[in-house]
Amino acid sequence: MKTYAVALLAIAHAYAADLRLGIVGTDTSHATAFAKILNDPASPDYVPGARIVAAYKGGSKDIEESASRVDKFADELRIKWKIEFYTSIDTLCRKVDAVLLTSVDGRVHLEQLKPILAAHKPVFIDKPLASTLADAREIARLAKAETVPWFSASSLRYGELGTTMKFSDALGVTTWGPGPVEAHHDLELSWYAIHPIELLYTLMGTGCEQVSDLAGKDEDVIVGRWKDGRLGTVRTLRPYGTYGVDVFRPKGVTQSKVKTQEGYRPLLVEIVKFFETGQPPVANEETLEIFAFMDAAQRSKASGGAPVKLR
Description:
single chain, Dihydrodipicolinate Reductase, domain 2, disordered N terminus, alpha/beta, 6-stranded parallel β-sheet, 21% strand, Rossmann fold
């Protein structure tokens, strides 16, 4: 009994030291997946150091993926994980140290972010950061004005593909992955193709100058030219498909194993570290260039695949 009591006391002390996180937007499976990884010490993917203690439901009635799931995921957070729900983001921010902005609808991120910035809470913004390049830039501008640290990233950046396929001698990279679009997102690639596009940037780095988007029947083939002459290609498959990478090197091509998905634990390790240090693991400028890349691709597609410079 004494050993058991000591163990319980140790757990209590650990919880007391954890950062308190709030989650804004429960209309995505990321909300419940993140809760299991952060709040369940028995999970094989458990990440210590932070716990989700508060939530704001949110939801978008005109997006099926949101409206059909928001209540289900909210109930799981409330019942299974005992997370307290609040009717305003302002109130939630008074209860937490940092925020996970996970609303599946990128259109609402800018407005939902404003009270978070006003409360000066560091924030991770889940994909898509925004639904337009203009909103992405405004998010960055407002966060800089309030000196609030933020970052956004796909889980692919820290998964097997993003960490094992990066080579210093890469002459060029091709990535592929799911690319379904959502009618309410003006920047159509931001909805799901953000994943293989961010994977391309993970492996190539920044510096793209020009993009061409050749639209096929069930895919887009996007080719970017970097300042140093390297070419990076993304194939976005619709409606859904696997993920993969080819890296072109001086002595041959290195091909990845095909992946159907990547786990969230590596991403959450980076998120917790970010909340502890205030140092974004992905430069905000890189995230904005990714959005400029998608914006250029869409303009290229509209002009029949003509090369378009990033703006």
